[in-house]
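hey can u check if this looks right to u? its 536 residues, i copy pasted from the old doc so theres a chance i mangled smth
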Amino acid sequence: MNKIYKLALFPGLIVCTAVFLIALSACSLLDSNQPQQDDPLVHEAEPVPQPLVRAPEYGGIEDDGVLRLSMRHPITLNPLLNEDATVAPILRLLFEPLVVLDETLRPTGHLVNMELASDFSTATLTIRDDAIWSDGIPVTVDDIIFSVEILRRAPDTVIYKRNVENIARVDRVNSRTALVTFQQASVTASYALSFPIIPEHYYSGHVNTTSPRNMQPLGNGPYNFASRVPMQSMILEKNPYTFRRTPTISVIEVLLIPDAQTKLHAFDQGVIDAIRLPFAEWVKHPSVKPVNHEEFLAMYFEFIGFNFERGIFRNINARQAVAHAFNADEAINAEYLHRAVRAASPIHPRSWMHDNNITGPEYDPARAAVLLRAINIPEPLQILVNTEHIERVHIANRLATGLVTAGHPAIVIALPFDEYYARLQDGEFDLYLGGMKLDFVPDFAFMFQGGPLFTSDPVLEGLFASLSLASTESAYLQAVSQLQQGIVDRLPIISLGFRHSAVLTGTRVAQGRMPASDHVFIYVNEWEIVDSQYLP
């Protein structure tokens, strides 16, 4: 039995009662804010033995000049067969992706120079002259073709499987130039190229998980695989052939840690040097021990939703009344301590797609009061929120207070996530606070699936469909702008904002640059261990 509190707000009256509820089931769509792995696409492998993690000396890592990171026990170290999202960021230290996202979340060439056709049906990829595998052999187009074919045949559960779904073929122009043809031409087709490639000369005939080479990777990143101790750790050494800046730190030890809670404990105890955390967990750690951190843009989207199976919220005026009663700007700034960015729609405000001229509904309690009186809602509005996410609980209370100020009673029901989700499924709510991790490419199909959580809106569906019809970048940006405005006007949800994430390190490590949103360890080669006598 879980003890929770139900806060009822009425004009001029606050009533608190303790209630007891039985835990039910959970969902992956709405973020529970439980400590998470480094990415939502986590494949739960079979249980593995606990790693042998060294006890830190004097409360932390011995200052030996080695950077210590972590991942779960890998089934394979082939990035194109890997299914575990905690392993993928480590493998990106060994294997470079074709493209990465820039500071506006737009794909840009990395291992290759990329030129898109005017109709976005093809992409010409020219491999960098200094792209060399760690055995000294140059990267070629044959490696790109080989890698795409490996992903085509890979199980659906591998991390990068979806990246090749829209690739019709890859043609060899010459040894350093490839022409990628997409199944469907799209302004956003190049996002699919954000996957690493592997060397054909090394992996050909060795791309099953039982091959020894799948645990002895050969890549082209800033670090090389050196050795591993099964069930315990892996050693990486700097790669002299990297096309990026030679790593400052010569050696990385990757400890095998089985779960997120153990990883948090290992970081707090100084057993590992770095950890990626979403905002809600990140803010708790400065009080645990001194840390350095670099904040980066993440796609954790926060919103207020309606119960569309209750007739009241099929009325746009009712949704507008709620939006006008709530000061979303103030709530995001106050509750997320400027570690989130306000958004009027599910398009990240820092994205190249975002229209900065579009803002969310204005905070106007007088307008909200007029709308609420005209609608004449007979009962207090029930606002559902999960207790694990304290910022959402605070925002729910702010929403309830705003509704009270506008003249209508509201009840905040804060429950553990399993019970929260069960109530969502059963439709036992009026409003709810939710969140999800969105893709970098806009895909708002979730807002049109019907049921209690989302409405079926032909106007918005038409605006969404127009994205795929845009044949030029200017037409696409216009379609995205119209969709953003449509979301503000039609209010299928009340958009709140996007939470940031951060890479935290102990004070012995200096990062120096903001991580990339799709590659949090991309600049590890530039990290430094401060005041270490073992630095080269």
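Confidence is low (pLDDT under 50) at residues 1-29, 34-61, 532-536.
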